[in-house]
Amino acid sequence: MDRSIILFLILFCLSGLDAYSMPSDFSDGLGLSPAAERRIGDQMARSLYRDLDYLDDPIVQDYVNSIMAPLLAAARARGEIQPEMDDAYAWHVLLGKNKTVNAFATPGGYFGLELGLLAVTVSRDELAAVLAHELSHVTQRHLARMMAQQEQQTPWLIGAMILGILAAAKDGQSGSAVVVGGSAAAAQSQLNFSRDMEREADRIGFGVATQAGYDPEGFVTMFDKLYNANRLNDSGNFPYLRTHPLSTERMADMQGRLGVKATATSKTNAAASEDPMLEHTLMAARAKALSSSGVDAQQLLVAQANMKATTNNTSQAAATAYAAAMGAMQLRDWPTAQKQLLQLQSLVAGKPLSQRQWRYLQAEYLLATNQAAAAWDLLMLDANHRAGMWLRGQAALALQNQAQLRQCLIERRSWLVEHPSDALMWQQQSNMAVATGWTLGAMRAAAESKAAEMDIAQALERMRAAQAWGAKNPATSGDDQIELSIIDSRVRQLQSQLKDLQSSKM
């Protein structure tokens, strides 16, 4: 767990839990209010953004978001997400490039997903099962309920409980040690409550995933996979099993919920899901490649393609070719990368979702081999998707084509209005504004990128610098006038946000 998270939680708890003394934060009787949970979550997110394992891979992020979006919609439709919770929480998944099989939820609606977990799933339904479970921990406000249960304990002991649970999100072993260190009796009480929370997250998550249209069998197959790993694995690569302990009771409950009808339906729809299944296989392969570091690991990905060249399994062949192409690109072995990409192209022919994933990977190859113009043209169909938009932006930056850069700047305006917390796109927006000579736009976008990563102090400093630049350089265009008005408003918002964060640490 990042040391800055630990420091924040210790300060938060030793202060007597500042939010705990604020009636407005505890009016619902559950301990922390949604607003108070979000403040804790924002602080954790800031540390996660700085973690060396964090990455924003637009291609994987797009895919994970496409799985999460129906889950959120279903949770809202079922009334699991209350309006005040919906407004307050972030509802954002952060990716980690670690090979360990882990996922977690933080206060305030942030979710962590290690690529190692995505790599071991074999279907979008299995990934949806994990995300639905984590989502249900948040919608059922398990942290706030734990706080309410422990409200008779001293602040330092409550702090130990929080610290243990949140530490476990990153490292299950250290989390358990912290909880036990808080108090043996309290730890046993928390363990019992945690088991109740796990069962509730299973039940609610199952309903959410099913209503979202995912095959409920994904819960059973994922549970089986984790249970077998729990029996056979002792290398520490499955921290998810420590923070979400499985039991035969939980597994039996999921199997009972599945039912005969759901199983029959899943088999009937198997053929119709061929393209989504293949797309998931490609994303699992990408996760495996991104989490494999070092020359030896990349060479192994390429070697596996040669060993499995004769397989008749289309999905397996496509995944192997995808990972091998990525490995070859990391090794700068361009002929091998091109060969694997051609193989992949033939395997995904006629499958729109999987073809799009091929185009993204092909565009990465073209950008890496100084063929930015070809990458720009290839992605014409994908300009409305975040990954396609970002890759086209990279192509425009490589070409330094002013018309293309201005087109990208315009395309991103509406995107960033709808997704103001997209740090990666804000940073690319800043780079493109610099390339077109739009100084004020570049300064504001750079500040927004920091704000999106919850570095509010840095964001405010940069926004004030943009404000000062605007005062010395009178606006000569309508765009600058609009930016100056937005910057003035954002300075006030960031000042208020920073004040709230500082007061919560006092």
Helix-strand blueprint:
Layout: H1 3-14, H2 34-50, E1 54-55, H3 58-77, H4 83-88, E2 92-96, E3 103-105, E4 110-114, H5 115-120, H6 124-139, H7 142-149, H8 155-170, H9 172-182, H10 184-211, H11 217-232, H12 240-243, H13 248-268, H14 274-290, H15 295-307, H16 314-330, H17 334-347, H18 352-368, H19 372-378, H20 386-399, H21 402-418, H22 423-435, H23 439-452, H24 456-472, H25 478-505
Parallel strand pairs: 2-4
Antiparallel strand pairs: 1-2, 3-4
Helix pairs in contact: 1-2, 1-8, 3-6, 3-20, 6-10, 6-11, 8-9, 9-10, 11-13, 14-16, 14-18, 15-16, 16-17, 16-18, 17-18, 18-19, 18-20, 19-20, 20-21, 20-22, 21-22, 22-23, 23-24, 23-25, 24-25
Describe the structure using short key phrases:
mainly alpha; Serine Threonine Protein Phosphatase 5, Tetratricopeptide repeat; four-stranded mixed β-sheet; 25 helices; 4 strands; 73% helix; disordered N terminus
Note down, in words, how this protein is organized.
Helix content is 73%, strand content 3%. It is mainly α. The chain folds into three domains: 3-268, no CATH class; 292-399, Serine Threonine Protein Phosphatase 5, Tetratricopeptide repeat, CATH 1.25.40; 420-506. Strands 1-2-4-3 form a four-stranded mixed β-sheet, with helices on both faces. Helix 3 runs antiparallel to helix 20 (386-399) and helix 22 packs antiparallel against helix 23 (439-452).
